[in-house]
Every structure is written in C-alpha cells, then in structure tokens.
Amino acid sequence: GQRFNQICPCVAGCSHAAGPSCAPSSNPSAAPISASTEVPSGIPSDSSSTQPSISSAPSASPVSSTTDQPTSDPSEVPSYEPSDVPAEPCVEDSTRKFFLRKNNENKPLIKKCRWLESLEPSKRENICKYTKSHRKFGPAKDVCPVSCNTCKSDCTEKTIDKFHRKMNKDGKTAWRESCGRLARRNAKQIKNICKKWTDSFEGYGPPKEVCRVTCKSCTEE
C-alpha cells in the first residue's frame, strides 16, 4: 500500500512535495516555471517579442538577387557635340578707326584701317600685336581683322578693295567699283552685278572673287 501511494498519490488523496499537484491551483503561481517546454505553443502570444526570431532553416527563395545585366545601358550619344556652325564672315571697314598708341605728349594717336593696310607687312604685323584700347577706340587687331589676319573665318572682305566691273566705251579704260559701294546697293542690284560681271582686268578680279561676303560667294566654294 505505501508503494502504490508513492507512485499514484492522487489516487490516495494525498500530495507529494516532489511531484506535481493532483489538481490545478485556482491562482497562478508568482514565479514562472524554470523549465521550458519542448513543444511550442499552438497559440501566438499577444505581444511581440523584443528580440528578432532566428529561423532554423533558410527561406525558400532569396530576398533579392543580382541581375545578369547592368540596370542601364550606356548612352550611345555623347552629352556634348562640337558645333558645326561655321564662323561668321569677316568684313573690314577701311574707314574705321583704331587706337595706335600715345605720343610723347601723352595724347592718343588714332588711325584708320586704310592707313594700316598701306604699311609694309612687318610694320603692320607689329601694330596688330597691340592690345590696348582708348575710350571708344579698340586695338587694330579687333578693328581691322582682315588686315591683321585675326578673322576666325576664311570668308573675308575689305570695303576698300575694288573689283573689275566692265570696260568703258573707249575700250581702253575699265570701270572699277569698291566692295563698300557694292554693299550699299540694294539686294537686286548686288545679285545682278555679282552674277553678270565675271571678267578680270589689270589685276582687278570680278566682284564674286573680291567682295566674297557681299556676293555671298564663300558658300559656293
């Protein structure tokens, strides 16, 4: 009888200090049980855990994967392309004035492009190197770009240059005209003269060769 009561104490109506209670208590215990259960609970807790859960097995599919190709293709068109627009034609007004230098009395010397053109090449090249201005008068290289060879375009013209237009009635003398005068004519006259007069005489060429800007013959080359 004593051996049976030790194995099955609930049957005998007694409790054993070392074993579990025969009936559940009406009040929960103040301290939790020290041992954890081997089987997880089927009902999730009402409050979330402060510690992240650790999965014992990897997920079925990775969260992200790398692509076999780059996300974007490099642009086939460069971001910048040099401009194909040609430089503006260059016309030198032979009557325009430029600042040469100051004399011994510290007064400015002002000259015209026509004067510059009449100089020997070496003297003209030296003056074209000057860079100083005086009031409204700039240096020769800016005011007289054809004489100083500072044009960015190959299409140049001087208003003082003359072209052969036609022979006079005597058959011995020629009718010459300057590019400056030609430019002052109306568009119809300019077009007619540039197209009609094509001869040269005594070193003077036709208008389309001498006055290339006015005759718009630079684009025809």
Outline the structure in words.
This protein is of the alpha+beta class and 221 residues long. 20% of the residues lie in helices and 13% in strands. A hairpin with a 5-residue loop joins β2 and β3 (108-112). The radius of gyration is 52 Å and the shape is elongated.
Fill in the keyword field for this structure.
single chain; 221 residues; alpha+beta; two-stranded parallel ribbon; 8 helices; 6 strands; disordered N terminus
H-E order: HHEEEHHHEEEHHH
Strand order in the sheet with the most strands: 1-4
Tell me what portion of residues adopts beta-strand conformation: 5-15%
Radius of gyration: 52 Å
What general outline do the C-alpha atoms trace?
elongated
Alpha plus pi helix count: 8
What is the strand and helix layout of this fold?
Layout lengths: L1 H6 L1 H4 L77 E3 L4 E6 L5 E5 H5 L3 H7 L12 H4 L12 E3 L3 E6 L6 E5 H5 L3 H10 L10 H4 L11
